[in-house]
Structures are given as structure tokens and as C-alpha cells.
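Subject: Sanity check before I submit

Could someone independently write out the C-alpha cells for this chain? I want to compare against mine line by line before I put it in a report. The sequence has 103 residues.
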Amino acid sequence: MPTVRVLPDGPVLRARPGQTIMEAAREQGYYWPTTCGGQGICTSCTCAVAEGEEGLEPMGPSERRTLYAEFGEAQVRARRLRLACQARVRGDVAVQKRGVRPA
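---
Independent answer below. Compare away.
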């Protein structure tokens, strides 16, 4: 089962292939910051991929549109930003996100 390491001081989550990062966190009793409840429109759940970008499914058009509108294409690519509510796990990955804590 793939793992999602949350940096700098967060948990190591187990994720089923195809599960979003946020779903994995919630299933294991962690709060992941969000204001839209996982609809992919608020960007509160945005995380930066620190390692293992290939461990996530490619970004879909809706996620890309939301991130580009908020941060701009150059920042999204340079910082390797993803929406945790949309990013589906397929292998091990490490992401940076503050505010992830036990629910």
C-alpha cells in the first residue's frame, strides 16, 4: 500500500491506489485544511510535492484550472503544487503541508 509522508512534522499515511491524499488523511483520523470540503475549488488543501511526484496520478483539467487561477502556471509548476482533495495516489509520495493534525 502506498504511503504519503506529510512534511515537515506530519503523519505518514497509508493510501489505497486511486484514493486522494485528503481521503487517506481523513480515513486515518487526520484533519486536512479545507474550506470547500474537498470539491476542488478553494485551494486551502494545496500541498507541494517534495518527493515522488510520479506517485500521484497526473493532474486533471479541473485541478489544473483551479491551481492556475489561484497561483499562476509558473508557480504551480515550479513549486509542484497539487490539491490534496484531487491528487490521487498511485505510489509513495512526500508532500509539504502545514496544519495537518489529528482530527
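---
OP: Matches mine. For the report I'm noting this point. The longest strand covers residues 46-51.
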